[in-house]
Amino acid sequence: MNDRSNQPETVLHVGDVRKVYGNHVALDGVSLDVARGEVVAIIGPSGSGKSTLLRSINQLEVPDSGTLRVLGENIDFSSRVSASQLLGLRRKVGMVFQSFNLFPHMSVLRNVSFPQERVLGRSRAEADSVSRDLLERVGLAAKADSYPQKCSGGQQQRVAIARALALEPEIMLFDEPTSALDPELGLEVLAVMRQLANAGMTMIVVTHEIHFAAEVADRLIVMADGRILESGVPQQVLESPQTERTKKFLSAITDR
Amino acid sequence: MMELFLKILVAVPTTLLVTLASFALGAVIALPLVAARRSRFMLVRGVGKAIIDVLRGVPPIVFIFVIFFGIGADLIRWEPLPAAILGLGLISAGHLSEIYRGGLMSVHAGQYEASAALGLTGTATFAQVIGPQAFRVAIPGMVTWLISLLKDSSIVSTIGVVEIMFVANQSARSSADGLMPFVIAGAVYIALGTPLAVLSRWLEKKLSFGRSA
User: Fold this and answer.
1) Fewer CB in a 10 Å sphere around the end CB: N or C, chain B?
2) Do B113 and A119 make contact, defined as CB atoms within 8 angstroms?
3) CB of B151 within 8 A of CB of A148?
4) CB-CB: which of B121, B128, B211 is closest to A149?
């Protein structure tokens, strides 16, 4: 609690996680520890397993084996995960998707308020007041009564971030949050994410935004073929990659 | 002429009762059918599919005859009206379950994922996220079915339900009005069906959630 040592609390531990689809090995024994307030960026070619890893953390994918510990919630993938464990886990972890996945039949305000009412048991008035604060923070107070279809992709993604934050998660997962956006609209999403990182949120971001990763992340992880190839301070990984595979991938995303 | 029209008009409530009651019955029975059809157990899926195929595959008149004359004669005695509602209700269940399924399939997988990631329970996800979106897509199909049910309810005249077609038929046989009873019956069906089409368009628009389509 009053931890003043140099070792901040580990909020997420992923231990030797494996996942096989047919004869494709998506995750080949991946382990990862994330400290409170840390921002981890994961890059890698498509099919490298980075999204599968992220989705394993909140159990949208169920790995074949391995362990997961999220703030005291212990899960062993070799045995069946109970429904209450699952809900407990998901309450601690928020997620933002590439395709936003807002609820199209609800206004922006309802999108942010409805999960609070259902998951946290807040009254509508309470939830709406939290929602309006958050929409203000992501610069969308004026859009509260609009439907998602009337918002740009960048605005929708910022609503999705507000919706996840409204449940007060301890960890936020971002699965290629800007990949479906025009570069300019991506910037407004990255700005919100930067603000969130500065506020001390623990974040794991799967992304192709190498500049964002270099600037905001505390740690950069490079994945390929279901494994972590490199992990370290972004500048160091980007400037002196240790493997040929990483060099090749980095030149593909930076030298264009 | 006026007398004929009034005679047919008196039968309208029965046509509406048969139509709406069998639609309501079908709309409810369709729910377990679509659940079975989407079950993760192959056996349950197979049974659901078989039931739906039978309900949709047998001509309505055969279905009604089997229920009224077959089951009605041997097992339980019943009036034409409940037999008609049960028969058309079951047929409706078969069609509506497939219309529901189409609606459910139209909902993007991301909606289930977002609901799960937010920690919503399965019930909340279905009732408040998936259901409303599927329903909107299902409305045109449901109303189309309701309109054809309104017309097809005329076949229950064959088992003696005194609805529009029964009265028209009776009048045609017992008078020299020729085709007139059927022309009037046709006009009455159109007059009953048109508001339904209007209702459908209104509902769709109301549930468009800001989409322009």
Assistant:
1) C
2) no
3) no
4) B211
